[in-house]
Amino acid sequence: MEIRPTANNNIINLDNQVRSLTEDQKKQIEDIQSKIDIRNTQGILSYGVAAQSNLTSFADSALGSIRSKEAGYVGDMLTNLMLKVKDVNVDSIGSNSGFLSRIPLFNNLVSNAKKFMAKYERLTVEIDKIVDELDKAQVNLMRDIKMFDTLYEKNIVYIKNLEFLILAGELKLKEVKEKDLPNLKEKAETTNDPMDSQEYNDMQQRVVRFERKLDDLKRTKMIAVQNAPQIRLIQGSDEALTEKIQSSIVNTIPLWKNQIVIAMGLLRQKKALEIQKNVTDTTNKILTKNSEMLKQGTIEIQKENERGIVEIETLKKVNADLISTIEETIKIQEDGRNKRVQAEKDMAAMEQELKAKLLSVK
To answer: Taking burial as the number of CB atoms within 10 A of a residue's CB, which of 92, 130, 250, 320 is the most buried?
Structure first.
Protein backbone atom coordinates (compact mmCIF):
# COMPACT_ATOMS: atom_id res chain seq x y z
CA MET A 1 0.00 0.00 0.00
CA GLU A 2 1.34 3.37 -0.96
CA ILE A 3 2.03 6.09 1.58
CA ARG A 4 -0.18 9.03 0.86
CA PRO A 5 1.16 12.58 0.76
CA THR A 6 0.94 14.60 3.96
CA ALA A 7 -2.64 15.68 4.67
CA ASN A 8 -3.48 19.34 4.06
CA ASN A 9 -4.27 20.03 7.72
CA ASN A 10 -0.88 18.57 8.74
CA ILE A 11 0.86 20.72 6.15
CA ILE A 12 -0.90 23.82 7.45
CA ASN A 13 0.01 22.88 11.01
CA LEU A 14 3.68 22.41 10.08
CA ASP A 15 3.72 25.72 8.20
CA ASN A 16 2.21 27.49 11.21
CA GLN A 17 4.81 25.95 13.52
CA VAL A 18 7.65 27.06 11.24
CA ARG A 19 6.27 30.58 10.95
CA SER A 20 6.10 30.87 14.74
CA LEU A 21 9.83 30.17 15.06
CA THR A 22 12.56 32.77 15.33
CA GLU A 23 15.25 32.93 12.68
CA ASP A 24 17.74 31.19 14.95
CA GLN A 25 15.24 28.44 15.68
CA LYS A 26 14.51 28.01 11.98
CA LYS A 27 18.23 27.58 11.35
CA GLN A 28 18.41 24.93 14.06
CA ILE A 29 15.46 23.08 12.52
CA GLU A 30 17.02 23.28 9.08
CA ASP A 31 20.33 22.00 10.42
CA ILE A 32 18.63 19.02 12.08
CA GLN A 33 16.54 18.34 8.98
CA SER A 34 19.59 18.44 6.69
CA LYS A 35 21.23 15.67 8.71
CA ILE A 36 18.27 13.30 8.50
CA ASP A 37 18.85 10.51 5.98
CA ILE A 38 15.74 8.39 5.52
CA ARG A 39 17.77 5.94 3.47
CA ASN A 40 20.08 5.27 6.43
CA THR A 41 18.42 2.64 8.62
CA GLN A 42 20.91 3.18 11.44
CA GLY A 43 20.28 6.90 11.30
CA ILE A 44 16.54 6.34 11.68
CA LEU A 45 17.08 4.07 14.68
CA SER A 46 19.40 6.54 16.42
CA TYR A 47 17.36 9.66 15.66
CA GLY A 48 16.48 11.46 18.90
CA VAL A 49 18.10 8.81 21.12
CA ALA A 50 20.42 11.39 22.71
CA ALA A 51 17.46 13.56 23.76
CA GLN A 52 15.65 10.53 25.15
CA SER A 53 18.77 9.53 27.07
CA ASN A 54 18.93 13.01 28.60
CA LEU A 55 15.38 12.58 29.81
CA THR A 56 16.27 9.21 31.34
CA SER A 57 19.27 10.75 33.12
CA PHE A 58 17.02 13.52 34.37
CA ALA A 59 14.48 11.03 35.76
CA ASP A 60 17.25 9.02 37.46
CA SER A 61 18.64 12.18 39.04
CA ALA A 62 15.25 13.21 40.44
CA LEU A 63 14.54 9.68 41.67
CA GLY A 64 17.94 9.46 43.35
CA SER A 65 17.31 12.73 45.15
CA ILE A 66 13.97 11.52 46.44
CA ARG A 67 15.37 8.16 47.56
CA SER A 68 18.24 9.86 49.40
CA LYS A 69 15.82 11.45 51.83
CA GLU A 70 14.88 9.57 54.95
CA ALA A 71 11.13 9.14 54.82
CA GLY A 72 9.43 10.88 57.72
CA TYR A 73 12.72 12.07 59.25
CA VAL A 74 11.71 15.73 59.50
CA GLY A 75 8.19 14.81 60.56
CA ASP A 76 9.57 12.65 63.37
CA MET A 77 11.73 15.51 64.60
CA LEU A 78 8.79 17.93 64.58
CA THR A 79 6.65 15.42 66.48
CA ASN A 80 9.45 14.84 68.99
CA LEU A 81 9.80 18.60 69.42
CA MET A 82 6.10 18.98 70.18
CA LEU A 83 6.21 16.12 72.69
CA LYS A 84 9.18 17.68 74.47
CA VAL A 85 7.43 21.04 74.68
CA LYS A 86 4.26 19.43 76.02
CA ASP A 87 6.34 17.50 78.56
CA VAL A 88 6.95 20.74 80.47
CA ASN A 89 3.80 20.99 82.55
CA VAL A 90 3.47 24.46 84.03
CA ASP A 91 0.78 23.18 86.38
CA SER A 92 3.45 21.11 88.17
CA ILE A 93 4.86 24.28 89.74
CA GLY A 94 1.99 24.31 92.19
CA SER A 95 1.44 20.67 93.00
CA ASN A 96 0.31 17.37 91.56
CA SER A 97 -3.33 18.38 91.82
CA GLY A 98 -3.08 21.75 90.09
CA PHE A 99 -1.14 24.94 89.64
CA LEU A 100 -2.85 26.98 92.32
CA SER A 101 -4.44 24.39 94.55
CA ARG A 102 -1.85 24.79 97.33
CA ILE A 103 -0.80 28.43 97.24
CA PRO A 104 -0.90 28.79 101.06
CA LEU A 105 1.67 26.01 101.39
CA PHE A 106 4.73 28.08 100.58
CA ASN A 107 7.26 25.30 101.21
CA ASN A 108 5.58 22.96 98.75
CA LEU A 109 5.49 25.73 96.17
CA VAL A 110 9.22 26.39 96.39
CA SER A 111 10.04 22.69 96.28
CA ASN A 112 7.89 22.07 93.21
CA ALA A 113 9.31 25.16 91.52
CA LYS A 114 12.86 23.83 91.93
CA LYS A 115 11.87 20.46 90.50
CA PHE A 116 10.14 22.19 87.62
CA MET A 117 13.19 24.34 86.80
CA ALA A 118 15.48 21.32 86.89
CA LYS A 119 13.20 19.48 84.47
CA TYR A 120 12.95 22.58 82.31
CA GLU A 121 16.73 22.89 82.06
CA ARG A 122 17.11 19.24 81.02
CA LEU A 123 14.43 19.54 78.38
CA THR A 124 15.93 22.77 77.10
CA VAL A 125 19.13 20.92 76.21
CA GLU A 126 17.19 18.18 74.42
CA ILE A 127 15.03 20.68 72.54
CA ASP A 128 18.06 22.70 71.48
CA LYS A 129 19.49 19.51 69.95
CA ILE A 130 16.27 18.91 68.05
CA VAL A 131 16.27 22.50 66.83
CA ASP A 132 19.84 22.08 65.57
CA GLU A 133 18.76 19.00 63.61
CA LEU A 134 15.77 20.90 62.23
CA ASP A 135 18.09 23.70 61.13
CA LYS A 136 20.19 21.18 59.23
CA ALA A 137 17.08 19.59 57.72
CA GLN A 138 15.84 23.01 56.64
CA VAL A 139 19.14 23.72 54.88
CA ASN A 140 18.92 20.38 53.06
CA LEU A 141 15.33 21.03 52.05
CA MET A 142 16.23 24.47 50.70
CA ARG A 143 19.06 22.86 48.74
CA ASP A 144 16.58 20.35 47.33
CA ILE A 145 14.17 23.14 46.39
CA LYS A 146 16.95 24.83 44.44
CA MET A 147 17.86 21.48 42.83
CA PHE A 148 14.26 21.01 41.69
CA ASP A 149 14.35 24.48 40.13
CA THR A 150 17.38 23.36 38.14
CA LEU A 151 15.70 20.10 37.14
CA TYR A 152 12.59 22.01 36.07
CA GLU A 153 14.67 24.29 33.84
CA LYS A 154 16.48 21.28 32.36
CA ASN A 155 13.13 19.63 31.68
CA ILE A 156 12.03 22.71 29.73
CA VAL A 157 15.19 22.45 27.63
CA TYR A 158 14.50 18.73 27.01
CA ILE A 159 10.98 19.54 25.86
CA LYS A 160 12.23 22.23 23.48
CA ASN A 161 14.90 19.91 22.03
CA LEU A 162 12.31 17.20 21.47
CA GLU A 163 9.98 19.70 19.81
CA PHE A 164 12.78 20.68 17.41
CA LEU A 165 13.57 17.04 16.61
CA ILE A 166 9.90 16.25 16.02
CA LEU A 167 9.32 19.31 13.84
CA ALA A 168 12.48 18.67 11.80
CA GLY A 169 11.42 15.04 11.36
CA GLU A 170 7.92 16.02 10.26
CA LEU A 171 9.33 18.45 7.72
CA LYS A 172 11.67 15.74 6.42
CA LEU A 173 8.77 13.32 6.10
CA LYS A 174 6.79 15.94 4.20
CA GLU A 175 9.73 16.42 1.83
CA VAL A 176 10.15 12.67 1.24
CA LYS A 177 6.44 12.09 0.69
CA GLU A 178 6.09 15.00 -1.70
CA LYS A 179 9.33 14.56 -3.66
CA ASP A 180 11.34 11.38 -3.12
CA LEU A 181 8.49 8.88 -3.07
CA PRO A 182 6.72 10.26 -6.17
CA ASN A 183 10.04 10.28 -8.06
CA LEU A 184 10.81 6.68 -7.10
CA LYS A 185 7.30 5.60 -8.04
CA GLU A 186 7.52 7.33 -11.40
CA LYS A 187 10.88 5.72 -12.06
CA ALA A 188 9.56 2.25 -11.16
CA GLU A 189 6.53 2.67 -13.41
CA THR A 190 8.67 3.98 -16.26
CA THR A 191 11.43 1.36 -16.20
CA ASN A 192 9.21 -1.53 -15.14
CA ASP A 193 12.30 -2.82 -13.37
CA PRO A 194 11.56 -4.97 -10.26
CA MET A 195 14.59 -3.50 -8.49
CA ASP A 196 13.21 0.00 -8.98
CA SER A 197 9.91 -1.20 -7.55
CA GLN A 198 11.80 -2.73 -4.65
CA GLU A 199 13.63 0.54 -4.04
CA TYR A 200 10.30 2.37 -4.02
CA ASN A 201 8.90 -0.17 -1.54
CA ASP A 202 12.00 0.06 0.65
CA MET A 203 11.63 3.82 0.83
CA GLN A 204 8.02 3.47 1.90
CA GLN A 205 9.05 1.11 4.68
CA ARG A 206 11.72 3.52 5.85
CA VAL A 207 9.11 6.28 5.96
CA VAL A 208 6.88 4.06 8.12
CA ARG A 209 9.76 3.34 10.50
CA PHE A 210 10.64 6.99 10.72
CA GLU A 211 7.00 7.86 11.44
CA ARG A 212 7.13 5.32 14.25
CA LYS A 213 10.34 6.92 15.53
CA LEU A 214 8.67 10.33 15.57
CA ASP A 215 5.75 8.80 17.43
CA ASP A 216 8.20 7.56 20.08
CA LEU A 217 9.71 11.03 20.38
CA LYS A 218 6.25 12.54 20.81
CA ARG A 219 5.56 10.12 23.62
CA THR A 220 8.90 11.00 25.20
CA LYS A 221 7.99 14.66 24.95
CA MET A 222 4.69 13.94 26.70
CA ILE A 223 6.57 12.25 29.54
CA ALA A 224 8.75 15.36 29.85
CA VAL A 225 5.66 17.56 29.89
CA GLN A 226 4.15 15.41 32.65
CA ASN A 227 7.38 15.74 34.64
CA ALA A 228 6.83 19.49 35.04
CA PRO A 229 3.81 19.36 37.42
CA GLN A 230 5.33 16.40 39.24
CA ILE A 231 8.51 18.37 39.93
CA ARG A 232 6.51 21.32 41.20
CA LEU A 233 4.39 19.09 43.44
CA ILE A 234 7.48 17.57 45.07
CA GLN A 235 9.09 20.97 45.33
CA GLY A 236 5.92 22.41 46.87
CA SER A 237 5.94 19.71 49.53
CA ASP A 238 9.55 20.57 50.40
CA GLU A 239 8.67 24.26 50.58
CA ALA A 240 5.71 23.54 52.88
CA LEU A 241 7.91 21.42 55.13
CA THR A 242 10.54 24.17 55.22
CA GLU A 243 7.91 26.68 56.26
CA LYS A 244 6.70 24.30 58.97
CA ILE A 245 10.22 23.93 60.36
CA GLN A 246 10.73 27.67 60.29
CA SER A 247 7.42 28.22 62.06
CA SER A 248 8.38 25.72 64.77
CA ILE A 249 11.77 27.35 65.35
CA VAL A 250 10.60 30.95 65.15
CA ASN A 251 7.20 30.63 66.83
CA THR A 252 6.80 27.44 68.85
CA ILE A 253 10.08 27.54 70.77
CA PRO A 254 9.90 31.25 71.71
CA LEU A 255 6.26 30.85 72.78
CA TRP A 256 7.21 27.88 74.90
CA LYS A 257 10.10 29.74 76.56
CA ASN A 258 7.92 32.80 77.11
CA GLN A 259 5.38 30.54 78.78
CA ILE A 260 8.06 29.35 81.20
CA VAL A 261 9.28 32.89 81.87
CA ILE A 262 5.73 34.02 82.57
CA ALA A 263 5.12 31.05 84.85
CA MET A 264 8.30 31.68 86.83
CA GLY A 265 7.51 35.37 87.00
CA LEU A 266 4.16 34.52 88.50
CA LEU A 267 5.93 32.28 91.00
CA ARG A 268 8.23 35.10 92.13
CA GLN A 269 5.24 37.38 92.37
CA LYS A 270 3.44 34.95 94.64
CA LYS A 271 6.53 34.56 96.82
CA ALA A 272 6.71 38.37 97.22
CA LEU A 273 3.10 38.72 98.28
CA GLU A 274 1.98 38.26 101.79
CA ILE A 275 0.61 34.72 101.74
CA GLN A 276 -1.36 35.37 104.94
CA LYS A 277 -3.18 38.30 103.33
CA ASN A 278 -5.71 38.27 100.57
CA VAL A 279 -5.01 34.64 99.55
CA THR A 280 -8.25 34.50 97.65
CA ASP A 281 -7.62 37.80 95.79
CA THR A 282 -4.07 36.74 94.87
CA THR A 283 -5.34 33.38 93.69
CA ASN A 284 -7.99 35.01 91.51
CA LYS A 285 -5.45 37.42 90.00
CA ILE A 286 -3.02 34.65 89.11
CA LEU A 287 -5.81 32.49 87.71
CA THR A 288 -6.99 35.39 85.60
CA LYS A 289 -3.52 36.13 84.27
CA ASN A 290 -2.84 32.49 83.50
CA SER A 291 -6.20 32.08 81.81
CA GLU A 292 -5.60 35.16 79.69
CA MET A 293 -2.12 33.93 78.87
CA LEU A 294 -3.48 30.49 78.00
CA LYS A 295 -6.27 31.98 75.90
CA GLN A 296 -3.96 34.31 74.03
CA GLY A 297 -1.32 31.66 73.47
CA THR A 298 -3.87 29.05 72.38
CA ILE A 299 -5.63 31.44 70.00
CA GLU A 300 -2.35 32.52 68.40
CA ILE A 301 -1.13 28.94 68.02
CA GLN A 302 -4.47 27.80 66.58
CA LYS A 303 -4.49 30.71 64.15
CA GLU A 304 -1.00 29.77 63.01
CA ASN A 305 -1.87 26.09 62.70
CA GLU A 306 -5.07 26.81 60.76
CA ARG A 307 -3.32 28.93 58.16
CA GLY A 308 -3.23 27.20 54.80
CA ILE A 309 0.18 26.26 53.43
CA VAL A 310 -1.00 26.26 49.80
CA GLU A 311 -3.69 28.54 48.33
CA ILE A 312 -6.84 26.73 47.16
CA GLU A 313 -6.55 28.51 43.80
CA THR A 314 -3.11 26.94 43.33
CA LEU A 315 -4.46 23.48 44.13
CA LYS A 316 -7.33 24.00 41.69
CA LYS A 317 -4.93 25.13 38.96
CA VAL A 318 -2.56 22.18 39.54
CA ASN A 319 -5.50 19.76 39.58
CA ALA A 320 -6.94 21.24 36.36
CA ASP A 321 -3.53 21.03 34.66
CA LEU A 322 -3.05 17.42 35.70
CA ILE A 323 -6.54 16.47 34.52
CA SER A 324 -5.89 18.21 31.20
CA THR A 325 -2.56 16.39 30.89
CA ILE A 326 -4.20 13.04 31.57
CA GLU A 327 -6.92 13.71 29.00
CA GLU A 328 -4.34 14.72 26.39
CA THR A 329 -2.29 11.61 27.18
CA ILE A 330 -5.32 9.36 26.75
CA LYS A 331 -6.16 11.03 23.43
CA ILE A 332 -2.60 10.72 22.15
CA GLN A 333 -2.46 7.06 23.18
CA GLU A 334 -5.78 6.38 21.45
CA ASP A 335 -4.60 8.15 18.27
CA GLY A 336 -1.38 6.11 18.36
CA ARG A 337 -3.34 2.90 18.78
CA ASN A 338 -5.58 3.76 15.81
CA LYS A 339 -2.55 4.58 13.67
CA ARG A 340 -0.89 1.27 14.51
CA VAL A 341 -4.08 -0.63 13.65
CA GLN A 342 -4.32 1.24 10.35
CA ALA A 343 -0.61 0.63 9.75
CA GLU A 344 -1.14 -3.11 10.20
CA LYS A 345 -3.97 -3.02 7.66
CA ASP A 346 -1.89 -0.95 5.26
CA MET A 347 1.13 -3.26 5.56
CA ALA A 348 -1.07 -6.33 4.98
CA ALA A 349 -2.47 -4.73 1.85
CA MET A 350 1.04 -3.79 0.73
CA GLU A 351 2.18 -7.38 1.22
CA GLN A 352 -0.69 -8.68 -0.93
CA GLU A 353 0.04 -6.06 -3.56
CA LEU A 354 3.72 -7.00 -3.60
CA LYS A 355 2.93 -10.69 -3.93
CA ALA A 356 0.57 -9.94 -6.79
CA LYS A 357 3.16 -7.76 -8.44
CA LEU A 358 5.95 -10.30 -8.11
CA LEU A 359 3.70 -13.06 -9.46
CA SER A 360 2.88 -10.90 -12.46
CA VAL A 361 6.55 -10.41 -13.33
CA LYS A 362 7.49 -12.60 -16.28
So the answer is: 130
